[in-house]
Structures are given as C-alpha cells and as structure tokens.
Structure to design on (421 residues):
C-alpha cells in the first residue's frame, strides 16, 4: 500500500492506496527560493520594468496609498518593508489598504500578525469594505457592462502602489496588478458583474489573453490610479522565487511568465482524483478550499470521483447564496441558474464550481473536511466526511475497486493539462 499525504488545514491527511492503483502525484515543479529576498526587492525598486524607480516617484509625491493582500495570501511584509523604506525618507505620508474584495474583514490581531507589529503601529491601515456604499465612487462601465465602482480612497493619494504575489488563478488567469483594484477595491455588485463572466468557457487558469474576466478587470482598472507595482512570484511553498516591479502591465506580464514555468504541469487522467488546495490558509473555509476542484475536474475520468481535501477551519466563508444553492438545487439546476445574470452572485459561482464535475463528468464530489464541518454539508450533493478511509471507500464505490488514483498537491495554483495517452 502507498501512503499518500496531502496538506489539510495545519497538518496533513493520509490516504492508503493500493500500489497497483496509484498513478502518482501531480504537483508544481521544484524551484529554488531567492537567497536574499529584500536585496532582490531593493534591486527591483531601483531598476523596475517600464517605470521610473520608486524613489523618483516618491520624490514627486506627498501622499501614497499602498494596496496589499489579506490573510488568505502570504504575508506581504518582506515586500512592504523595502517600499516603506523608500517612501519614509522622502516624507511621503503613507496609508496601507488591505484590498479585501469580497473577503471578510480582518481582526486587528490578524492585521498585526499579517503586516507585522511595527508596520501596524507606525502606519494607518484601512480595510476595503465592498458593501459600504459611502466608500465608493462610480466611473462608468466596462464594455462588458461591469460598473467601474471603486473605493474612492484610490483617488485621494498622489501615488498608488500595489504590493502582493503573483500566482495562477482559475478566474483571471493570474493574480496581481489589476486584481488589486478589481476585485480588491471594488463595489460588491461590480465584483459580481465581473465574476459572472466565469460562465464563459474561455475563463481558464493560467490564461490572460482571451480570458473575459481578466480582460474585463484590465478595462475596469485601465483609467484608475495604479502608478507602480511590486510583486513576488511565489513557488509551491509560498517561497519567493522572483521579484518584479514597475509598470502595471509590463512587470505583471513578466511575473506571470515566470509563474507559469512553475505551475503549468501535465497529469494522468484518473478514475479518482484526490486534490488538496494546500492546507491553511488556503483551505481556511470552503470558499478557498473549493479551488482544489479546478485541476481535479480536468483530470477526473467520466463517471469517476473527486475528493477535495479542505479542513475548513472557518466554515463556509461565503455569502448565504453559496449555502442555499448547494442545499436547494441539483447540480443541473445550478448550472442553468448561474447563467442568469439576475441570479448570479459569488455564492452562486461557488456552487457552480462544485456542480460542474457532477454534470459534465458525471463524477461524484466528496469533501474531506474537519469533523466540525461534516454536518454542514448535509442536504447537498457534496458527500462530506472527516475520515480519509471513508472518503476513499465512497470514491471506489463510485469508480470501482480497481480504479486508478492520482493525488494533486497545491491544487489552487496548478495549471493542469491531461497527459496524452
């Protein structure tokens, strides 16, 4: 028997798989982390791509807004500190904004842990609230109908800088740059309008050109302030493997190119696909953990089974629509309803992600979750258990006792293509 361990919450979940059934692991390519991250950051700030050095921009500014990521992404502190070291000597009055998009507000303790005590104590830190109408201003619509409704704070500063990570994402192709404004600083109805485009099959992980969500995000952000970006290209374990800085388009494209080298992989088609988003915080709730289904969908054979490995320490992590649709509608009904723009929301989108393998692959969807969350999925088409052995038994019940099994690691970032027979 092969013992296969996948990240699950703050630990691992172990599956026992017959040697003759195990087809192997699908995971990102091994990479080498930067030896001196802050040295690389300082070089990138001094020699950016397609933009003046940050020091030149700072010399001409009195105020700056630094947009950054929340706790569902790696801490931006190694990037933030060098940026602040450039802005402070130039006497730039700096505010840090956590671009939450639709995510929940962070506690003060979480912010201090995420950004560091010194940064939190020294600088004003604000959090975007996508549901507060008083925070937003509208600047028209994109050609696809998305309202360009954004937190007015981005217009209140001389210099707007984005700091975060670049990784593949199943919605917009890759994270970074324009995503800090849409969805990061956008009104919730604008986010829903943009994310409705996920119903277009051209929206794929690792794809920028021709991806309607990414193109709509670009158009949303096109005339909004974003003067400089600084991003870490991360590897499988959140290690920094490259730093890109400068122009929002040129530097971003370079970072995406480097990220694709790590995360575009091939994997065997299998009757059973076990897929982990990557442990905490990437499976902190079902909204994050469900991302494990994306590569599993690509690799599962028709009539097979997928097992999502997601501890879901914080529960659903979503608006009520996600819960209601999973409990009220069949997978077929979900895929029909989600195409109705009037019914679409991020919660509906989440339900669609889980329904696709059932409808389009006739596959069973099983969730290995924390014991506290098992009962939450009662009444849905997702079978839930906290026992890996039970999850495997259900999968073999669907796909046969001799079914081939593949294990997918760090699934939230993978750009997977099935291997040719």
């Amino acid at each position: 028997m092969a013992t296969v361990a996948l990240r699950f919450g703050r630990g691992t979940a172990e599956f026992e798989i017959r040697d003759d059934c195990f087809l192997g692991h699908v995971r990102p390519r091994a990479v080498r982390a930067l030896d001196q991250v802050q040295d690389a950051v300082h070089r990138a700030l001094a020699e950016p791509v397609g933009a003046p050095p940050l020091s030149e921009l700072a010399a001409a500014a009195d105020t700056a807004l630094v947009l950054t990521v929340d706790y569902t992404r790696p801490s931006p502190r190694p990037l933030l500190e060098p940026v602040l070291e450039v802005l402070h000597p130039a006497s730039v009055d700096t505010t840090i904004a956590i671009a939450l998009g639709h995510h929940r507000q962070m506690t003060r303790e979480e912010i201090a842990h995420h950004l560091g005590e010194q940064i939190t104590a020294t600088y004003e830190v604000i959090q975007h609230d996508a549901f507060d109408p008083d925070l937003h201003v509208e600047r028209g619509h994109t050609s696809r109908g998305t309202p360009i409704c954004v937190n007015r704070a981005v217009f209140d500063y001389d210099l707007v800088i984005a700091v975060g990570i670049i990784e593949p994402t199943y919605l917009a192709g890759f994270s970074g740059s324009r995503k800090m404004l849409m969805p990061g600083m956008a009104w919730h109805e604008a986010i829903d309008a943009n994310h409705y485009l996920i119903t277009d099959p051209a929206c794929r992980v690792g794809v920028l050109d021709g991806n309607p969500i990414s193109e709509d995000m670009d158009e949303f952000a096109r005339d909004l302030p974003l003067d400089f970006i600084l991003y870490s290209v991360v590897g499988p374990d959140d290690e920094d493997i490259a730093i890109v800085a400068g122009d929002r388009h040129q530097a971003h494209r370079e970072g995406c190119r480097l990220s694709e080298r790590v995360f575009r992989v091939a994997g065997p088609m299998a009757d059973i696909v076990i897929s982990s988003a990557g442990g905490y915080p990437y499976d902190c709730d079902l909204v994050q953990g469900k991302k494990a289904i994306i590569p599993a969908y690509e690799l599962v054979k028709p009539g097979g089974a997928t097992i999502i490995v997601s501890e879901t320490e914080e529960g659903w992590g979503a608006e009520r629509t996600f819960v209601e649709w999973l409990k009220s509608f069949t997978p077929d009904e979900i895929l029909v309803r989600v195409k109705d723009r009037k019914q679409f929301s991020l919660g509906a989108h989440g339900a669609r992600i889980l329904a696709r393998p059932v409808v389009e692959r006739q596959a069973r969807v099983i969730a290995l979750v924390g014991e506290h969350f098992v009962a939450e999925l009662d009444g849905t088409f997702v079978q839930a258990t906290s026992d890996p052995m039970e999850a495997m038994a259900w999968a073999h019940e669907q796909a046969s006792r001799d079914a081939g099994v593949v294990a997918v690691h760090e699934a939230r970032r993978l750009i997977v293509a099935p291997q040719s027979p």
